[in-house]
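Quick entry between incubations.
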Amino acid sequence: MACCGFFQVRGMVPVCLWLLLLCPEARLVATAADSTASPEGQTFTFPWPPAWVARGKSQKMILRGITGTNPGQWDVQSCGSLPDCLMPSGPQFNGLVYHNPVNPDEIVCDLCDSWTVSPDGKTYTFRLRQAQWHDGQPVSAEDIKFSLDRIVEPGAIRVRTGVFRTFYEHQSAQVLDDKTIRVPVKFASPLFLENLASEYMKMYPKHVAQNLSADEAQQPGKLIGSGPWKLKEFKPHIAIEYVRNPHYFKKGLPFFDGLHFSIIRDYNRRLAAMQVGQAQTTEGPTIGGYGNEDPVRLQRETGGKVRAIYIPEAVQTYLVLHMNKPPFNDARVRRAVFLAIDRQELTKIVRCAEPYGCFGAVGTFLPNKGGQTVESDEDLAQVPGWRQPKAQDLAEAKALMVAAGYANGVRATLNLATGAAVRSGEVVAEQLRKSLGIEFTIEAVDRATTVDRIIRGTHHASLDSSGVILLDPADYLNQHFLVIGGQKNPDRWSQPRLTEIIEAQARESDAMQRLSLFKEAVEILRQGESHMVPLSWGYSGGMMDYRLQNFHVPGSEQIVKHFEHLWWDPDAPLPRD
Amino acid sequence: MGEYAIRRVLLFIPTLLVATILVFALFWIVPGDSALTILVGGEGDSGMVAPEQLEQLRQALGLDRPLYVQYASWLWDVLRGNLGTSLWYKTPVWDQLQDRFLVTMELAIMAMLMAFCAAVPLGVTSAVKQDTRFDYLSRVFSTIGIALPTFWLGILIVYALASFFQWLPPLGYATLWDDPLMNLQQLIFPAMTLAFHDLAFTARVTRSSMLEVLREDYLRTARAKGLMEILVVGRHALKNALLPVVTVSGYQFGRLLGGVIIVESIFVVPGMGTLLIDSIVHRDFIVIQAVVLLIAAVVLMLNLMIDLVYSVLDPRIRYR
Amino acid sequence: MLVERKAATGEAIPDVRLEWRTFMAPVLAVTRFSRRKPLGAVGGLIVLVLFMMALLAPTLAPYDPRQIIREPNNRVPVYVPPGRTYLLGTDHVGRDVLSRIIFGARISLYVGFGAVLIGVTGWFVVGLASAYAGGAVDLIVQRFVDAMMAVPGLIIVLAIMAVLGSSLNNVIIAIVIGMLAPVVRTVRSQVLSVKEMEYIIAARAIGAPAGRIMARHLMPNCLAIYLILATYYLGFAIIIEASLSFLGVGVPPDVPSWGGMLTAAAQGHVTRAPWAGIFPGLAIFLAVLGFNLLGDALRDVLEPRLRGVSSTARRPSR
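Done. Structure below.
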């Protein structure tokens, strides 16, 4: 993948979209024409090869980090929370394939050695490499089959991996020999590998996992993996400690002797810890919580010792309009709100911090990830709802309100979670009060209550945010517009053509065709009659000591969370900033 | 005296029960689903969770039973010594509680002692020198201490430490017997923050109690006899003045524990306060109940002891 | 105190001279009070300023407290430091801090007086009745109060807010419920100690009916206690409202309340815009200080015997 470089972070540099557009093979592996050779085995190409890395020495050091939550679940296949589950538990495991840590837009082998795809795209054959579990047992194809089956197990709770059921039939994988497994997929899809590369699709040892009940698997230390780190100890409210796996199959990795994450619930205290050097990295190191100016501010205040890291366009804030009662059961009112919100002003207030810059953008409806530009910024300048100045949209919005019978405004309640969402909520409420006369009473509660209220639709509107999970525009369509109820689509809003498109794009292997499907989907969504009103996109942020090397920023905060490729260079020059 | 003591001891249990019922009932009506929170975590989103899976989890955790059944079953477990299994961590509650309890108690006692040792001399001197400049200053100081919100003070202290001194209490936690120096470093600032409010309060009480005692007839007699003022104050007045101060401080302990919750989260002290906040966020009812039970038991026991000691020391109330 | 003199026509003519004195009497009382208790006078002044702020808020405040300021060049002044245009700076969404603090006085006073009027009055009656009734009633009430005091007040108040939802009136309800235990306890213990005073026993001995005793003897004493509790809990209510808003369960965030302003400031922007957190904190602090100083001085003046009244009872429970 020579044409795709890595990402240099300064907070304002745009994504290397153009590079990806030039490398179409970065995304799709299968074409209908012929079988494609898989990428080569595991190589890390370090931009700066320090001598001791080449010698495979391990750094005699324990990396100290901080995290803000106490994890409650350790079964990565079943859980749904990034900070509470994937972050703490993920480092112990490997997937079959994963996103290349030094080139995160690329999917490469993790436990596999190579793979081939059948001409019709419906069968993938993986060859495994020599690897062993933490207890010394070798990783075999049986383990892979067991893990895949466990992921799609009927009736089991699979919050983030449940979507895999659409691709893979339970127990349909075939073990050809000890190191080869054949995986049939239900239909040829460009998303299969993307899904398989998800950080939640970890492989477990059959001989250990099959004897654990669902509850036991959630306890720390019960499941073992093949990964770079072994869980040493979890002390609630104090720390999570890992120790290096000396028999890791990637020779020479990981570079540290261990990881130590101190658990600090208070945000300010975490900032303070990074500032005085009590920790060398935030968890992740990027998780939504630091997507504001604080990393840059700390970078300046510490003279560059703390480096700010950002994933742009990582999290989208949006309004959920509850359609189970007036006023938002009326599509005209929904469209009015869609048109009236001044997204540019909102983004300026919420995402920007003088003099540090902006940490977010108005952004597009669907994320432009995975090499697909569904909407460009030029498109948006013309789109109702996004275009400036807003006079025309506001007039239309007001007319819609009058037509719906709310010429004198209406009172409504807005449900959101305390924290960063409050700011967006306050701006939205003030804007809608001024332009449409909608008087929102904001009820800010803790996260658990917010989610509960969204699902139950107790309020008129809710403000929520969600991150990009898969590097593909389909990700958001799947998150928000599947007609299953729940947190993202509580009132089961649907539009027949949109549903068709969502089905069709999953099976469409031609890139241009898919893109046109997405464009059509966006056209429908721009009518503004759905339950979801996008507000703005925000960064996901984190911080690292300047001496920590080789971190490459991924396209989503759900990727690259294992610290296996990072090393410490005590002589690293302090970057001039 | 005996009758009074027996009556108070007997009433301890029902009072404790009422406290637990109170919290159980309250948190039951609080919105927020334990099962859902477990699946999506404190910060996550519920993704692809089907309602049937949620129901399944609820059944597994026993959350679908009627309220009184859950309470009765919890109570029965507690009486047999089992505080239950945490809904979030899936480990026995007692394991976590025992360490945390000691930490919180150490913090609270430290704060209390610091406050007491500073407040008593302040209050006594203020009373003896009533209406002088010292008195005014100390009264203003104690009113300030009462008016200042504890969490604000805590945040300011962390900010000041990090910005001006580039120093923060070390992370992690060392117990008193493992590493007394680190333990002291970690607890000194949270204890000071807590103590500030308590100090103000105790100083006021000491002052007013001392003032009352200083007017008593028997002191006038002592002075008339020619006894030195210092002895008047030190030997006669102090004893009687301190008794109500000690009892009030004891009752204050319950309020102090409330402040501990906030201070622990600001200063990252792994005590019961952080456990409680965590459990509230995760809707972990089992842990919330256990923590409340423990705190209530401690406070009630303390009150009971104070009442008994007071009744021994102050004969006037024995005959009620 | 108008003295009516009948004029020749039989009409009543108000006596101007006496009227002037009755007008001056409260003024004189205040001056005397200020001289004796200068601290109390300071407190009174602060309270007066607070009232003025609340009453004259629309005239005093330069901007609408809920309005995002939009400057001519389409710029929104987020986190602008205190300066000439915005005296106390602006907050995290571009609203004027000074205006919000001025209007915040309304919220604080509303919450404070609401909580005190309902809470102190209500629980006062309960404590009085419980103490006077004695027997089983007293016992049960005391057990309940003990139980409530044993549970950290924060939990109770948090749970109530989570159930009721965050609104201004619900904050008052939560504070009132949180006040139950300490107020009932204090009132009861004070009433008990008064109840045992010699003159009450004497009154009972000569057969005065209970109601009469309550009205003529207990009430005046209780009035002083009430005043003291009221002033103390005014400050207490303001702080609880601030704490609730800090924890995110208080008044809705765009309503200008001092506690709510502290929340926004505390969530990560303490270092970036300290004025956003310092001024509301200062306002809370001064308000509570004022009420406490005033209350102390009132107590010293009205009932010197009650110097021992504190927020928790001195007496052990029964």
